[in-house]
Amino acid sequence: MSAVSIYAEASPNPESMKFVLNSNLLVDGVSVDYPNLEAAANSPLAQELFGFDYVGRVFIAQNFVTVTKSQPEMAWTQLIPELRQFLKSYVEAGGPIFLVDPAAEQKAAQAATAGDPTQQDGQIAQKVIDLLDNYVRPAVEQDGGNITFKSYHEGIVTVNLQGSCSGCPSATVTLKSGIENLLKRMVPEVQSVVAEGITV
Length: 200
Prior knowledge:
Layout: E1 6-10, E2 16-21, E3 32-34, H1 44-50, E4 55-60, E5 64-69, H2 76-92, H3 102-114, H4 119-142, E6 145-153, E7 156-163, H5 171-186, E8 192-196
Parallel strand pairs: 7-8
Antiparallel strand pairs: 1-2, 2-5, 3-4, 4-5, 6-7
């Protein structure tokens, strides 16, 4: 295994830090968000991170891990070296990131929740998914988080905010002024965007 280099990058959420690797953990477009240890059953890496008593949430994407701390009084300057060293050692040693490929897992989950939308709703939903994937997700990933499409019904788009976006003070503003405006402009049928995963 070649040497792994990792750098820490601040996110708009002061409680979240993005650790960027020079190697891939997941295929592009797939990400996983673990709000607690119980949710992380599929990821030995995330389970190990929850072993640090100040880790409150773990988000894993293509080439980065976003860690959200549960103890606001602890400064990142103390925590970054420890987390960076742990991630570097773990990945260099070839530690398992996942037990089951999250891409397959997510496809199955999406198929299960998609239900049976009308043909028109299905077309609108596809337009929304394309816009989120092409315009919104890359920007959100820059900030150490992710946005996923959940459903479209009667003009209302429901999305999931993950990683640093969950609990971020500016998430609601971004959602309403940025994402909702974009979708309304590009897909006239969209009336509003609501999010799951915002914890304030």
